[in-house]
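Tutorial handout. Part one gives the primary structure; part two gives the three-dimensional structure as tokens.
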Amino acid sequence: MIYNREQIESLDRISRLKLINSVTGIKPANLIGTINNMGQTNLAIFSSVVHLGSNPPLLGFISRPKGTEFGHTYRNIEENGEYTINHVHPEFVKNAHYTSAKFDENISEFKRCNLSEEYIKGFKAPFLKESTFKIGMCFKEALDIKRNGTILIIGEIKHLILPDEAMAAHDIDLEATNSVGISGLNSYYSLKKIDDYPFARVNEVPEF
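Part two.
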């Protein structure tokens, strides 16, 4: 199957979204938890969380603009500067998926999708209790992507919570975390570890 640009543009909106959202392969499925200054919580699934650097430890994700009707995540982050990133696990993947529905701002996806809020002392934003791998983030900056009007939200890791059995010499075994991947708009995948290799050095590259 070969698509040219014109054929891609001729697809209906949902077909085009599914196709283009799948071309990068399996991405991490994360639920981002936020709260506004009125105490209203929000939980939304994202497949765009990316590593931006280790020192300082920065992560980014793509958001709708704050002025849009359903840009609750970004608005809440701007209000109080903190948010959480929570891995999705098979036990609640269906609940996680339906947080993508366009609920009104006064409806918490935690409650509507039967998921639980969890808090750490001194940190405003809600973590997801059902997740065993969660990250507390501090907002640092937002970069406008002019080509499509989206925003790259950049934050620094302040809390990192994960299972003891997933850690080995500061390396995370993602299969042991039982985290879920996502492709397109609605396809979810389990992760299976294939192998481990040493840090790549030129003088140690094997003959293939």
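Part three, for discussion. The domain at 27-190 is CATH 2.30.110.10 (Pnp Oxidase; Chain A). The chain has a mean pLDDT of 92.
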